[in-house]
Write a structure and sequence with these properties.
By secondary structure, the protein is mainly alpha-helical. The chain is built from 46 helices and 7 strands. The protein folds into 7 domains: 180 residues, P-loop containing nucleotide triphosphate hydrolases (Rossmann fold); 58 residues; 94 residues, Orthogonal Bundle (Arc Repressor Mutant, subunit A); 101 residues, Serine Threonine Protein Phosphatase 5, Tetratricopeptide repeat, CATH 1.25.40; 121 residues, Tetratricopeptide repeat domain (Serine Threonine Protein Phosphatase 5, Tetratricopeptide repeat, Alpha Horseshoe), CATH 1.25.40.10; 243 residues, Alpha Horseshoe (Serine Threonine Protein Phosphatase 5, Tetratricopeptide repeat), CATH 1.25.40.10; 53 residues, Arc Repressor Mutant, subunit A (Orthogonal Bundle). The protein has a 5-stranded parallel sheet with strand order 2-3-4-1-5, with helices on both faces.
Amino acid sequence: MTDELVGRTALAERATKQLETSGSVLLYGPTGIGKSALGRALVADLGRKGCRILSAAPSNSEAGLPYVTLLDLLSSQLDFCWQVLPDHLRQPLEVALLKASAPDTVRDELAVRLAVLHVLRRLATTGPVLLVVDDIQWVDPSSLEVLTFCARRLSEGVHMLATEQVADGDLPVMAEACPEPALQLEVPPLTEPDVLGLLRQRLSDPLPVRTARRIFTASAGNPFMALELGRAVLRHPKNVSPNDPLPVSSRLKTLLGERLSDLTPCAHELLLHAASSPRPTTTQLAGSLGRPIDAELVEAETLGLIDISAERLRFTHPLLREFVYAEATSAARRQAHAQLAAVVDEPVENATHRALATQEADAELAGTIEEAATVAAGRGAPGAAATLWRLSADRTPGTQPDERARRLTRAADDAAAAGHLAESADMARLAVQTATTAETKVPALLLCADAVWPERDRRVELLSEAFAAAVGDQRLEARVRIERSHSQYFDRSLDDALDDARTAEELARAAGDTEAVVDALSAFSSVLMARDAGQSADAVLQQAAELAQGLPLTRSVVNARQMAAMQELFHGRTAPAIAAINALVDEVREHGAMRWLASVLISATAIYERSGRGADALAAGHECYQLMQDIGDEPEVGLVAAARAEWAGGTAVIGRQLAEAALDGVRQAGNDEWTGPALASLGMIGVLTGDPQRAVEAFDAIAASGEAAMPYDPAIIPWHADYAEALVAAGRLDDAAALIADIRSRARNLDRAVILIGLARSEALLIAKQGDPAAALDLLEETIRTAGDRVYPLDLARCELTRGRVARQARRRSVARTAFLDAIEQFEAYGAPAWREVAETELARLDVPSRTRQPSELTDNEQQIVAMVRDGSTNREIAAALYLSVKAVESQLTRLYRRFGVANRTQLLRTVDRPGNNG
């Protein structure tokens, strides 16, 4: 409907259905929840469909003015009113709307109601009418009585869309003013992904993801509050750190300040301590304040500011916490943290309070905070760890620049793992500026290079600077060469990438850096897989996977284990692949490393897709895209994963939309590594939807880009079989044959037997197109029979689908029926609804000719033959187009001649084209 409707699609669909069929809709919820935005979108949509809109937006200040809402509703229809109303009803309405003067009487009030009812009924005879009342709670009593009177008497043709402001948890009370049946729809808070999407869409500049998530928490999903907070953050003169209060806009201050204005100073101090603590309890607050707090608790609870349950204190709205903390002076906040530190024992919370209680450098305090950062990271909270590392760096004395740089680098590393990329980049740059030795500067430079990865020139420059600083130190040089290998791989400079990966492995082994060895081997295997060295790549990757076992979870270890799971998939060992990727997803999720999780979910999507777990693929693919979009890390790559997930377990329409968006995204980002996969997704969806021309265009674009566009190993992204199928459908049979032969040879050389199933399917289509459907059918049946257990289930199901198509062309209807039914059953089992729909459509086509028909009627196949005869096609051309042999075409024409009593093509056309015949 409109960009405003973030997260409201289902609600809008329910409301639209109700308004287009019968009755009314009442949208209700608290201030700022988005009732009016949803209402505007619904009105615009219905207006485009020809609905007559009568609208009013009453306000509190006008609620005492009689008939003002009625005047707003009818203002665009006054001429119509005067035309259709009889005099005895027209005059009272004119008086009510201040269009004439006369004394009011009881009879006049009834006449006004009857006049409005008459107008609405007459309007309804010209087309659907929608009454729109935004903020119906402010309708003046006179207008409300008229609306309620009409609502009880209106039937079809007049509907109402109203919004009503209610407090959280309350129900609406204005439904009686809405014509029946009235659907009451609560407008709920937005989810976190929706709030983050709203902020991206509506703000002038992007926010750091951690700040955006804080805004979601503070706003409790209220879009008005979220946007107000977001704009306030952008207006703030300094970056808002995780420990800074969120700035509150003047509009929100007005909204919240009234609720706090009656607090006593002691109660205000209590709330500041509560706002300064992540998990306040009454015992903790009494200890930090050093006095009984019962009276202040009762005061705040009576004013509706806090709830207390089992000693836990909670603000009734999260924004109250942010407001109380933001409105306090910095000195008052430091004092609160100092008092809380004295009563809190938990190490991470205690260290945080101590850090925020002072702005002075203190080596001992910096060390304590570092210990807390390590604890937080071990608990699976890299975002919290990054905050603590930054606090530790900020409290490090200026006489220890490399210690400060080390802590900043650790902060940047943990922030990157948590997906806080903007913060990570800022801290890495600060670490580079602070560091005085290679030991502290090189890791920071590598993080800086990672932060600007899409910017090739800047990335190469930073890696060169890091290499110059690292030369002479085996461990540091190995780390730099690994990143340089990744960079060259990304830029498709495979020879250079291979050299750096090999050298990095040697240096890492010499330095005794096992994690770096794992990383170097992973990089080495990636380059080998991109070239003609699949079995060598398997061996190298196996080494990396074995070394990674038992190591703590780091980005390098995650990458090696992720690649090992994919290696199982490349060999068709889907069960071990699923077990490995599930374990890794769980561990990374528990570790809290959202950036790593997004990467792992790319592999999870592929493994689920090829293992016949469509629903799991769909969930993983969309979570991957959502994460990448939220953290701002190559969202176009997430789109590729989501598109493939839709291809396997969703819908073709959404899959095409995502694939097209992915292709636009990778091209705009200059992401050459993922351009090929994006094109492959688009081509495969073209095959799914029966659009071979579009599929061929996408696949041809990959082929035209050369070998570097896609990995050499056909199992990494299995797209070649679909390319061949599209080529066959487009009539490029020689190209299809050459492609099948090339990829079959490659798959056998690399021990990728799992790829042969799809190629056999494409080859069967090629053989059928060349005029031998019987041989094609034999090939398909042999392929299915000998497939074994190392196969992608969806490939087998597609073989059944193809078997049905070829059998139908060969006029073996019973075989075709069995194949289509088997395909439907398998697609259903594998959670592939788009493919199931294709198979069901094919089965329905098969069933069409099975009805009892007159001798003069033609089957679908016969109609195709006659149509091609009419176009002047030869028997050979007809055979090639319909996957039949020339003899089969000749036999069918002979039967048609006999049935219609004719001797040749000309007579046949004359007969079937005669009125009354089905030709």
